[in-house]
Every structure is written in structure tokens, then in C-alpha cells.
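haha ok so turns out i had the wrong file open the whole time. this is the CORRECT one, sorry everyone. sequence first:
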Amino acid sequence: MAKDGLTSLSRGVYSLLIELSEEQAIKPRPDLSWHLSKGYYVYTGSALGRGSTSLEKRLERHLRVNKKVFWHIDRLLAGAGKVVKVVYAKTTAKMECELNKKLLSLLQAKPMRGFGSSDCRYGCVGHLLYLTTNPENLDELLHRAYCELGLNCEELGRGLEIK
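then structure:
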């Protein structure tokens, strides 16, 4: 069994707190690009499958340095972006968009239009949120977002390792 009870059968939703050490431009295709400012971002995603699409494997992928660039988030993490914290909750419900909207409100963040939400059907502007300020109570706000949605969240910090 993996750390924190995560297995290749676990499903859920997660938030990555990312520190961007310098400005970064991301252009996945000719008609889509982002210019990201130095600072902190929160990316919200879900992993509702089994095996390689489980919560455990999805988080392992995001934390791995060497990987094939596939998603928007891969492009950010292959550049100057570094995951500094992971908050997640096990659930089989599709909660990614609700969680993203809750975080957007609580963190008073700026969504990066279209980032990580190209398949979103719930009207999210983007699943990458730029923290225009660095709230002192960031941990509390991240946990509060999960709690207000009835999700029991856990986190990976410091070593950011799933064993």
C-alpha cells in the first residue's frame, strides 16, 4: 500500500500549490498561449480512473521530473514551476470544477483562461489559479475549500513523495 493509503485503485480530486520561480510563457498550440508571472499558483485536477489514471499515479506523474509532456500542467512543471504542496481527497464524485470554483472564491485568485480546463463542461474559466497575493492563511483556505464541499482532505508536503 502507498503512503497515506493511496493505491492504484484510489480515485479523487487534488490541488497542487506551485511556485513559479520566474516568468514563463506556455504555448501548447498556435492559437493558445499563457504568459505566467512569477509567484504562486494552485492547479486543480481529478483522477477518477484506476491503474495509471488513479489518484496515486496521477500525483506521482505530476511530481516526477522526467515525463512526456502531454497536459498543460506538464508544460508548466517542465519549466520553472515546482510543486511545493499537494492537497487531495479520495472521492468517486466529479468534484474538480466545484473545488476549483471554491478555491477561486476563497483565495481571491485570478484564473488562467483555458489552462487545464479544455474539457471542462461546467463553465470554469481555467483550472490554474494565480495567487495575486500570498495569503498568510493559505493552508487553512486550501483545507477549508475541501471541507466546505464535504471532502476529507489530506496533504503531501515537504518531501512530496508517495511511497
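The longest strand covers residues 81-90.
again sry for the mixup
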